[in-house]
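Sequence and fold
=================
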Amino acid sequence: MDPTLAADLARLPALLDAVRDASAEALAGLDARPVVPLRDGPPEPRRLPAHGAGAEAALADFRDRWEPRLSASAGPRYLGFVTGGATPAALAGDWLTAVHDQNSNSGMDGAGQHLERETVAWLRELFGLTPAHTGTFVSGATMSNTVGLALAREWLGERLGVSPAQDGVAALGPVRVLSGAPHSSIAKALSVLGLGRAALVPVPTLPGREAVDPAALDRALADTPGPAVVVANAGTVNTVDFDDLRAVAALKDRHDFWLHTDAAFGAFAALSPDHAHLTEGLDASDSVCVDLHKWLNVPYDSAVQFTRRRDLQARVFANSAAYLGPLGADPDLVHLTPENSHRLRALAAWFTLRAYGREGHREIVERDTACALELGGLLEADPALRLLAPVRLNVVCFTLADDPTPERLAALREAVSAEVFVTPTVLGGTPGLRAAFSNWRTTPADVRRAAEALRAATKEIA
């Protein structure tokens, strides 16, 4: 064994203590750190060392050169990208994921698979889905949407008497994917799956809304030759608008389509009695996307994909190799996602659900929603700013009251980046900014700090 590696092995408990202390210090300082540090680019690159100096030296180098440049994305005022943090239990679960280092894809070493299935069952209950849905962990919402649309592609083939998984996507002919205000990952998934970005057909939304107009969707489906795919939204990116999922699903009585619902963070509305009605009808979906490193507050990268047609899932992703064993009636996870290597990412989710239960996570959802409403009210009262949409759940979409150019908004965003991080957007042709609340640490005090920073910055760029 390399002598430096052997020395680290001999000192492993002390090294883990050092990492623990560094982690605790970093997390304790989240509130005081700049949310996005303003630095002049990365440090000067270094060459790969021929001889290593050991883990302790690597830790010191990381803390000196890289840690000060990292954002406080785990903290309470990182309001970009609908990013959660990591609850204490989720962090513990993620550390243990690395400790046990499972490739939880095979029934030949099956404990990891069984833990994932238990976690999926808990999540299914959390979101109000019935046992008709099976689920699998994937790396994020983009992959969850991709898997769901891969199943839709195979379903289209089933309706047409072909198998794209076997015969290729050309066997389908032209495909239409209908949606009101789809997330950008939908077009990306269609590109990856060979269906093409041009397959995505926009359907009119309700006036002043991002929710699809069910009557317009009905007409679009009537004009679609053959079976189609519908992508419904349970929480849009800009305004957290929800399609009427029951109305969309009811169209199946008259039209032949696969219903995929992108509920990346909107599914968590099911936890709040005041907002659970928004997710009514979710269970009627043929496939569902939910992102867990958003509102479940587990570390990146983690999402879950649900479907009613696991048979199609196994047909698409079956991995035929003697060393993997047979497909079987209850497919191993290796046969259900694009990944042959499948980290036990379910463990962090299992830990946080086991530690805090439904009620603990309901409190996070309701507190974040209250914080979004409070920030919306404070910005609405500021004459220099205006809301671009009502605050429906956990996202505040706003802009400058006067001359909201992308350049001025970029200057505003940069001016506040040490105190609060928000991201740019465009809504209805108007450039704006988004503040997305999904971190378990965020409190009303953070809202007031964010609002004050924005108020002061508008005066700076005036």
In short: DSSP finds 15 helices and eleven strands in the chain. The mean pLDDT is 96. The CA atoms of residues 33 and 113 lie 39 Å apart. The longest strand covers residues 430-436.
